[in-house]
Amino acid sequence: MELKKNPKADLRKNSGTYFVIGLAVVMFLVWRGLEWKTYEKTNDYDVSMNVEDMLDEEVPMTEQIKTPPPPPPPAAPEIIEIVEDEVEVEETVIESTETSQEEEVIEVEDVEVEEIEEDIDVPFAVIEDVPIFPGCEGEKGKGAKAMRDCFQSKMQKHIAKNFRYPEIAQEMGVQGRVNVMFVIQKDGSIGGVRMRGPDKNLEKEAARIIGKLPKMTPGKQRGRAVRVPFSIPITFRLQ
């Protein structure tokens, strides 16, 4: 006698479905196992802290707000007394300056205008009467050219006589030419001395030489004494 199988009792019929469900359950359990984390129970709070103690803490004096004193009461207004002016003021009467027909007109004579002498500078090369260097008085009648030549000659002799080379300039090996400019004043004295040279020591020596010039007879233009600018070079050369 042969056994007959019941098709409903066949366990292999839904094996694929059961396999998928079991695989999904296993994967879920594995995932949960990997994601599972444990934490230590710690208490980060200090239960001993008392809020009232913090409120009772004293505030430093520097942090206390200083209340400004109240403003002083306003001063009482001054009482202004009105005083009557008892002083009599004299009125100033301004008289008219217009002339009437009845007044006589006085004739004024011619007014003489005085000429004001102006300080002018006339160059040495064009002045009419050249300043006279002491010792050149004898050349006065020989003309302006002879007076200029005598002046130049006396200037050169004066420089040669008073020349002295500064020792410090010699030690430093300084040499060159100093251009000296000065003015022969209206009284014959020397003023307005200016120098321009390669070294201050040489300029100082040139000023000393010019300062020893004698007083001269002033130059004249149209018969009136005028100031005469003059310039001359002084050469310092080492030998």
From TrEMBL:
NCBIfam families reported in the protein's UniProt record: tonB_Cterm
UniProt subcellular location: Cell inner membrane
Span of domain TonB C-terminal: 150-239
Main location per the UniProt record: membrane
UniProt keyword annotations, A-Z: Cell inner membrane, Cell membrane, Membrane, Protein transport, Transmembrane, Transmembrane helix, Transport
Membrane topology: Single-pass membrane protein
Domain of life: Bacteria
GO biological process: protein transport; siderophore transport; transmembrane transport
Family, similarity comment: Belongs to the TonB family.
Transmembrane segments: 16-34
Record GO terms (molecular function): energy transducer activity
Protein name as annotated: TonB family protein
Gene Ontology annotations for the cellular component aspect, listed alphabetically: outer membrane-bounded periplasmic space; plasma membrane protein complex
